[in-house]
Amino acid sequence: MNEQQLSKRLEIVVSYVSNKARIADIGSDHAYLPCYAIQQGLAEFAIAGEVVEGPFQSATKQVRSLALTEQIAVRKGDGLAVIEPADAIDTIVIAGMGGALIRSILEAEPAKLDGVKRLVLQPNIAAHQLREWAEINQWKLVAESILREDNKIYEILVLEPSEAKVAYSDAERLLGPFLMREKSEVFHAKWEHELANWIEIRGKIDANSAKNAEKLAELDLKIKLIEEVLR
């Protein structure tokens, strides 16, 4: 993978960036995504944000080697802290982290989301955390994708601000409203695996112990939701 040929996962992520966007790629690693977005004309300005020194240096080197320092600002900082008001960022990309971590990044500096028109989020796990965050903070899902790459399954969520209150059912929050309607082969594979795993876990929990009641109720709900959707 490089700035000219992204992974399948990042290709789908960047496909949700509108033409001439001003993007912030949080956790940019080698800055391949912002470099690709600029070179393909998808973005006119980008921030490559990194909190770790090694990837920050790699991103800096990559942007300099392509002579893109005028269009891409490589910044070291934690999460959305790399974004300044003058950047006029309208699209934020956060890919390749856990859903809980992405959620914590969004919650840490909510003011940095002012003026942002689109979030493109690719959690490695726990996508439901982001759908729940969206409900609470009035962001609506406008698209979702699911794909398999290198024997791993990834979900991509695209969110835009909503003036109206956003509400999802338990099933939509867990499985994704767009994904559960499409019911692709990859979607079935993911949730059949999860279902088998949760049934196995449930069978190992002592149902006679009062302290396990909450955990069992949560598992039973998840199992029921998945069985109904896959049926």
Automatic annotation (TrEMBL):
Residues forming coiled coils: none
UniProt key word Transferase: yes
Pfam families: TrmK
GO molecular function, one term: tRNA (adenine(22)-N1)-methyltransferase activity
Organism for this UniProt entry: Listeria booriae
Cited SUPFAM superfamilies: S-adenosyl-L-methionine-dependent methyltransferases (SSF53335)
GO term, biological process aspect, one: methylation
Protein name: SAM-dependent methyltransferase
InterPro entries registered for this protein in UniProt: SAM-dependent_MTases_sf, TrmK
Gene3D superfamilies xrefs: 1.10.287.1890, Vaccinia Virus protein VP39
Recorded superkingdom: Bacteria
Keywords assigned by UniProt, alphabetized: Methyltransferase, Transferase
The keyword Transferase appears for this protein: yes
